[in-house]
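User: Run a structure prediction on this.
Assistant: Running it now.
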Amino acid sequence: MAKDKSVAGKRIAVIGAGWAGCAAAVELSRRQAQVTLLEASRTLGGRARKVAIQEHTLDNGQHILLGAYDATLTMMRQIGIPLNQAFLRLPLQMVYPSLDEGMEFIAPQLPAPLHLLVALLRAKGLSRQDKMALARFSTTARWMGWQLHQDCSVSELLERFDQTPALCQLMWVPLCIAALNTPPERASAQVFLHVLRDSLGAGRAASDMLIPKWDLSALLPENAQKFIENAGGSVRSGMNIKRLIENRENKNTTEKNIMKWRLGYDTDEVLSNQEFDAVIIATGAEQAGRLLNTVLTEQKITPLPALEYESITTCYLQYSPELRLSRPFFALRDQPERQHWGQFVFDRGQLHADQAGLLAVVVSASDQATDLGNEALSNAIALQLATMFKMPELAKPKWQQIISEKRATFSCTPSLQRPDNQIGLENCFIAGDYTKCDYPATLEAAVRSGIAAARLC
């Protein structure tokens, strides 16, 4: 490791071992800081972690990454993740089970932007008018530099670009909900354009879809822990930090006071004999506010803003091991009026040999769906699959399991003011997918934020 004099030897605490906290701790360890990573739960990973279900190790939510996630993929390489083993890499695609109610759009292995042009020409289920509208959107967005003078909703953007109803329903709305986890009528068009810029508007590999073969904890948090500990740092789970305690140190009369921090946890006990040169709060936004807002208010610094949240639900359905879809994943038309809630379905058996016959169905921005209750929702999703794939056996899985993250992401609304990593407290920073960033609340946004906070130290 190259020695970085700015942080080498400094004692730095990172509170929260989600993806932002792990990224911050790895970046600091690379620069030879003395890192202590603290996590309240027993499993690292935050809102992207493994869970045990029916003797399987699965994820608390089915994820898909993009080739454009440079910070995440670079960090995975740094901590020793073999990307070709950890992911199934597929070209950009939006394929529905049936052309009767969907389309087939698959980008070939060609240089950008030729891959999108050929995909558009070959697309099935889209009319000439639909294809012209998509081409017009892409061309105009590039000409605009993927920037708006003033943010608006994604729905307004699509209307402004004269996108057809079919194209909105089959392409833009599913992409918006998958990327921003916010319905298009209240999702930020500017953030959506940022995602499109770095995927559709970049090199061909940037638009590739990466489906994890490994569970989410193995993808980054567990290997991050090994990296941190090998660098001399420590990772402590089950540590619920309750208080930040300021401690000013005056070395001599000619130097200004130096802010250091101590941490109180659980029943107001203080971490014994531990004083930190800097602290990074890498918890969720609400927990960060509870830790920081009293201190910020006392020092007449603007408190962290309150955010609105969106849920994400994943429904796991186990069938006979012989069951296999014709592709690793499909898009699904969600039509609440028909009790069709699923938006994407993944064939886990094509990712893990020991998960044959297991399907994972994702419902983003899922508040309305979860109001049904877990049993009714999983039954409705099973019937949706049976109808869409014309496979009656899909209506009766051997077992089914719903996992909902109620606060999976913040609502990514137009012109949302997101806080900086630097909040005005000396030697104290925040990290998380909710901080100021071009991206919505994604794994990439979390990793970028963690790295940015580490560099501020």
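DSSP finds 14 helices and 20 strands in the chain.
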